[in-house]
Specification:
Elements lengths: L6 E7 L1 H5 L3 H10 L3 E8 L3 H7 L9 H8 L4 E8 L2 H9 L12 H5 L8 E3 L3 H11 L10
Antiparallel strand pairs: 1-3, 1-4, 2-3
Helix pairs in contact: 3-4
Bound molecules: 2'-deoxyadenosine-5'-diphosphate and magnesium ion (MG).
């Protein structure tokens, strides 16, 4: 098979999805939407790691709650590849608040509330690179541009 080298994004299946047994359902939606899984790992991060990952949100009132939640159980970290991967994953996930997420999106299907909203997806190509490198070593990130 000839591999099409598309854009890459970083995604996380959040602890509520893992606990609710929705990891497979979410991965299935991702694959059906045309994303290739380039790298994947199941890890439980510490609160300190969550604080580092979400450092840009440290002044926001929900920062502590967010970091407690993200370190409460395992997450699936993923690097995904497809044309227009960053924007397309955000579309597939839907609005941050599952109540406002369009029907058929991951957050509408599997999100509990604005905090426990099923998945994370990078918001830019630059952040996708930063976030991918945060979770994966060079050895695990193949053929990066
Ligand atoms: P997104 O994950 O859609 O990029 P974001 O970057 O604004 O949203 O926020 C990061 C995460 O923080 C989000 O996925 C869930 C949590 N969060 C955002 N707004 C929140 C709020 N008002 N109350 C509680 N948690 C919130
Ligand atoms: Mg964000």
């Amino acid at each position: 098979m000839i591999k099409t080298v598309g854009e890459r994004t970083f995604c996380m299946v959040k602890p509520n999805s893992y606990q609710d047994g929705n990891t497979g359902g979410i991965l299935s939606m991702i694959e059906k939407a045309g994303f290739q899984i380039v790298a994947m790992k199941l890890v439980k991060i510490t609160k300190y790691t969550a604080q580092k990952f979400y450092e840009i949100h440290k002044e926001r009132p929900f920062y502590d709650e967010l970091c407690d939640f993200m370190s409460s159980d395992k997450v699936v970290a993923l690097i995904l590849e497809k044309d227009n991967a960053v924007a397309d994953l955000r579309d597939l996930m839907g609005d941050t608040n599952p109540e406002n997420a369009e029907e058929g999106t991951i957050r509408s299907k599997f999100g509990k509330d604005i905090g426990e909203n099923a998945t994370h997806g990078s918001d830019s190509i630059d952040n996708a690179k930063i976030e991918s490198r945060f979770f994966f070593s060079e050895l695990e990130i193949y053929d990066e541009d």
